[in-house]
């Protein structure tokens, strides 16, 4: 890297309930190096901040750089965020309330820190790096342990009136459906997240249905991962195939609802479930969305799977850092 560019590095951080991923990026947003740590949220806010700082230092060190060469850090954090102050207003996965993430990290690292909701950050990464900024209206839907959304309207992140826009996972799609972690029943998240998929498979196994997953992992399916579902389907497992198809159909209905409401140029699906099961889910999602959307609303709209995978969050963090550092 040219000497002049060395003070213009950006670090993107994806802070989740179970892991912290940090990435060092060039001024052109090329990923140079990553580092990963477990979050250990049960230790409390201060301990997690220490671990985020450590993860940033590790990533910079692995890139053979030093912190003085980093211009800014962007963090995608779960929950409701106050973007100006960098406070995490409420993050149930981390058990945080009014947590001054920006302030405390800047104390430790002495570098400007900018904080955004994690799914908004992912949407930023997709828009700016994967799609090269060619769309100004994008909807990101991210299926992982839960389901979240990121909205970019007219080229800017849309946060809504009080900063909580994008909670797509809590649209009720099936009245009287399964209980969701938010307290409601029948939410999109309770029907199509990784947690929902695993729960449905475990329930059906307890009811006597057969799956090769029990041969691989034991009767309780304790160590089940999204990739195991893909392997099972490719070995002809009808139970797993049926459950995954159901989740894909619910996702397609959610996409149709959101197209009717928002009419974005592009709908991007990402997260661990899509990473693992893109081939099994995307065609069903697209077909269902086209079936359920109001005629005419889908004209010219792209529905696609993100190729950034696990790096969407850190990429979005770096985009945020570069944008806000200006």
Can you give me a brief rundown of this structure?
The protein is an alpha/beta fold. It folds into two domains: 3-127 and 311-325, 2-Layer Sandwich (Nucleotidyltransferase, domain 5), CATH 3.30.420; 134-307, Nucleotidyltransferase, domain 5 (2-Layer Sandwich), CATH 3.30.420. Helix content is 40%, strand content 22%.
Question: How would you describe this protein?
Answer:
The chain is of the alpha/beta class and 326 residues long. The protein folds into two domains: 3-127 and 311-325, 2-Layer Sandwich (Nucleotidyltransferase, domain 5); 134-307, 2-Layer Sandwich (Nucleotidyltransferase, domain 5). It is built from ten helices and 13 strands. It has helices spanning 45-62, 101-109, 118-130, 188-192, 194-206, 213-217, 226-234, 238-262, 272-292, 312-325; strands spanning 9-15, 19-25, 31-38, 70-77, 80-82, 87-91, 96-99, 113-117, 138-143, 147-153, 156-157, 266-270, 302-305. The strands form three sheets. Strands 3-2-1-4-8 form a five-stranded mixed β-sheet. α8 (238-262) packs across α9 (272-292). The chain starts with 8 loop residues before the first strand and ends with a helix. Residues 1-5 have low confidence and may be disordered.
